[in-house]
Every structure is written in structure tokens, then in C-alpha cells.
From TrEMBL:
This is Pirin N-terminal domain-containing protein. It comes from the Eukaryota. SUPFAM superfamilies: RmlC-like cupins. CDD domains: cupin_Yhhw_N.
């Protein structure tokens, strides 16, 4: 197994007063040719938006766009007529397809902290769609919750609101956990991507990210820490850090909380 850390301080970042944001991959004014995408995963932004502000109405096409709320409330409006306030544990997907317009703004008196995630669809020209899912903290406590999966995966509903993973028109699965101190979870690299595509390679890859739940750009003396290990490789990630991880099908990876507080961890299988 091979682990390549993506440290928080090395990510693209900007402080616009109303918006504090970190970019794992090239986005907006930030460009880094070594970090443009990972498999179908194209955007992973960690945003904090001040009250009474947000992203005004703007357009998207040919991307699968997720909003995962860590804290606060996020108001979504779009050209398909969807109006919704997303809260802690909510995950919303806009399958932009041939084109949509939407806005995302802070709802209520407190800032909103959320992850903005984009993946590339299997094909262009899809009909725009909208999905919402809710996952409780208990569902994620010291175990992986499968929160996003390709549309043709077992247990995936195509209803606007339903139980189970959010459907995505892309070869991406997302798992998340709230990992307590000294606890660990494992991940086994799958034998094939969940889309059922004819990929016969045994080489698999995942991207892992640790949310900045202790605050915007926490210093070394605070925040959660997790250790990734497997097949002779290991590294420690702090809040805001990520890692590119490469393994062979069937290989197992361990994720252990080596800090003193709960860590919110995201694992993208792409």
C-alpha cells in the first residue's frame, strides 16, 4: 500500500471574510497541476460561510455536485424548483447534467461549515436530478456509513429522499465515520469499482480527508489525529489533512484515532 499525504497547509486556500475555504484540487483562482483530480473526484472544498451570506445564483453542467453539512444550516435553491434547508448530517446531491442554476447560502444566525464535492459523471447529457439523504451521528459512530454510491449499486434508491446511500452517476463511493479516541475502522480495497464497469485491474485507490471540526485552520496543539496503516505503510493525518492511498484489491487498511477527540473522517473510493 502507498500513502501520499495532502497536508492542509499545502491546499489552496482563501479568506474572503464572508467565506473561508480550502481547495484539495485546483479550483477557481487556485491551480496546481499535481492536484487536479483523483479518479472521478474533481473537487473537494471545505467551506465556512458567514451568516447572511453565501454563493449567489450561478450555473453548473456535467458534474455531480454534493453538499455535506458538518455544522450549521445551508439553504439550497435551484432552477428545478428545489428549496431546502440542509442541517448537520444532511447530504444533498445535484446531478447537474445538461445544466442547472442554484444558490447556496447560510441559513440562520450561525456560520455553516460544509464540504463541497464534485465528481465527473460517466457520460454527458444526463437529465438534471436532485437527491437528499440524512445520516445521524449514531450511524457513523466508530463505523463507516456508506453515504454515496453509484446509481446501480445494491440498496441505492432513486427516490428524491430515501434511506441508504445517495445515488451518483459516477464511479465514486463515499464513506464517513465519527471515530472516537483509540477506536479504529478498516477498509478493504474492493475487487472492482461498484459501477459494474469492466475494470479488471487489481490496483485500487481511495482518497481520505479529515474534517476541520475544531475550527478554521486549527494549529498543531489542537484538533483530531488519525493514523492510516496497512501493508507496511502508515501516516498520521490531522484535521484538514488528506491522503492519496493506493492498494491492491483485497488489501486491508486500518484507520485509527490516535488523538484525544472525535475525528470526522471521509473516505472516497474512486
Amino acid at each position: 500500500m502507498k500513502i501520499i499525504p495532502r497536508r492542509s497547509i499545502e491546499r489552496g486556500q482563501a479568506d474572503h471574510d464572508w467565506l473561508k475555504t480550502f481547495h484539495t484540487f485546483s479550483f477557481a483562482m487556485y491551480y496546481n497541476g499535481e492536484h487536479e483530480q483523483f479518479g472521478a473526484l474533481r473537487v473537494l472544498n471545505e467551506d465556512r460561510v458567514a451568516p447572511s451570506t453565501g454563493f449567489g445564483t450561478h450555473g453548473h453542467r456535467e458534474f455531480e455536485i454534493f453538499s455535506y453539512v458538518v455544522n450549521g444550516e445551508l439553504e439550497h435553491r435551484d432552477s428545478m424548483g428545489n428549496v431546502e434547508v440542509l442541517k448537520r448530517g444532511d447530504l444533498q446531491l445535484t446531478s447537474a447534467g445538461t445544466g442547472i442554476r442554484h444558490s447556496e447560502k447560510t441559513h440562520g444566525p450561525n456560520p455553516v461549515h460544509f464540504l463541497q464535492i464534485w465528481s465527473q459523471p460517466w457520460k454527458n447529457g444526463l437529465t438534471p436530478k436532485y437527491f437528499t439523504r440524512h445520516f445521524t451521528d449514531e450511524e457513523k459512530k466508530d463505523k463507516w456509513a456508506h453515504v454515496v454510491a453509484p446509481v446501480n449499486s445494491p440498496g441505492v434508491s432513486l427516490e428524491r429522499e430515501a434511506k441508504g446511500p445517495t445515488p451518483v452517476q459516477s464511479p465514486v463511493s463515499l464513506f464517513t465515520t465519527l471515530l472516537s479516541p483509540s477506536k479504529s475502522v478498516s477498509h478493504t480495497f474492493p475487487p472492482s469499482i461498484e459501477s459494474g464497469a469492466t475494470d479488471t485491474s487489481t490496483h485500487r485507490k481511495v482518497y481520505m480527508h479529515v474534517a476541520q471540526t475544531s475550527g478554521y485552520n486549527p494549529n498543531e496543539a489542537e484538533g483530531a489525529s488519525v493514523k492510516i496503516s496497512g501493508a507496511g505503510a502508515d501516516t498520521v493525518l490531522r484535521e484538514g489533512d488528506g491522503a492519496y492511498i493506493f492498494g491492491e484489491a483485497g488489501e486491508e487498511m486500518s484507520v485509527e484515532n490516535v488523538g484525544d477527540r472525535v475525528a470526522e473522517v471521509f473516505l472516497f473510493d474512486t
